Amino acid sequence: MSKAERTRSFIIEKTAPIFNKKGFAGTSLNDMTEATGLTKGSIYGNFSNKDEVAIAVFDYNLQKLNACVAAQFSKQKTAKDKLMVYVNNYEEIFNSSCDDGGCPILNTAIDADDTHPQLRNQVAKAVLSWKARLTQILEQGKANGEFNANINAEQIALTMISMIEGSIMISKLLGSSAYIATVMQSLKKLINDLT
Question: Does residue 93 have a pLDDT over 70?
């Protein structure tokens, strides 16, 4: 890794929690220089503008979240157990080192929805990828007889994403992870009823 690549990685790592908590509009250049200890020139010597930093940071935060989920997925053998990772581990994920201000998908989607089309597109790709991954798991469950052959895998995937992101939003807004636990019980029932 070159010095420039190390500096870019350092900037991304140090500013990632700030962008995730404050959003694109709320994160200032002063926030970035304070978090990194670098000058404005050093930051913009490695990134052409704040937009480029924000996109790199979103990708970093998403990879970090995906790594936490993937670590749990790798321990599961059945499609049902893979889906249950969300039920059994999402509250834990958002109370662990994987959480630097909440879900980067939810936070960035809300922040960039009407104000930053390029960042919004990155989030849309992430949601579509997540939907595709869940749909694939559900289709595998249908193929191996774990789930009813008549279920609509795409509809269930979208419902799961909505329940997960909605529970995170409510929990963050109301300041209690108990809301995640409550919604995850409904999600557990949904998954158990797929058979």
Answer: no
